Amino acid sequence: MTPHKHTEEKTRLEAFAQPPAQIILLIFVLVAALQFPLGIVIQKVSFVWGVVANEVGVMLLLPLIILKLSGQSPKNLLPFGKTNRHYLLASICLILGVAIIIFYLRVVSEMLAPLNDTLRMALSQTLTVYGPLDTFLKLLLLCVLAPICEEMFFRGFIQRTFSRHVGKTFAILITAVFFAFMHPSTWHPHLYFILGLTLSWISAKTRTLRTPILCHMINNTFVLIVQQYGLGFPVGGAGVWIDVLAIFASSALIVLGIFMLQKSRRHG
Description:
Layout: H1 3-17, H2 21-45, H3 47-69, H4 85-112, H5 117-127, H6 132-166, H7 168-181, H8 189-206, H9 210-228, H10 240-262
């Protein structure tokens, strides 16, 4: 078999190995349906075990079990190939810029559609730490475990499956919508859509889950630090020029990150 024919055969087999979109949709519906009872467990019973059950049990193991029982292989849905430093730096610039802009958009969103007291308190309790042990646990759960499991679920199972069926652009949009839908009770969903859109685009450009996982970790750690140390945006009290500078700098990071990733030859 010639190298060209071998490549075509490999591509055909990989395409055949992708699970049907119906199975992934079923998985999403099941995972989404379990978010409400698990949210109660997290808020009322145990934050630690609720998060572990949701991230590991529901978002990771449940899809793997369903795919296995349906005779599908998740191998092609979970690419963990390396990416070079150029694309990694670009992705970090992009996610940091987006994270800061989201804080400012959150202020505008609060003015137009304020969260109720229950949701505000739930968000505050999730991001507030109460000592060294609590700091360690929330860093481990929110900044390490959650990004790994959620990126495998959204950018792996969902995005890569839909890329085969509806194309990469629509797959990015669908995944971002699903990502926002799964975070309705902690923040404004449209802000999660922006975050999901960024992570999905990074995943499509770098063609590996390593980069969006790292970017998701950076975003969550940044949010936790801002909440813990009261480094809110807008800064306020220190002059409007600081906020103008922060918006300008974050916008520059976004433009730089997009430009560098657009130069990528590995985009999918």
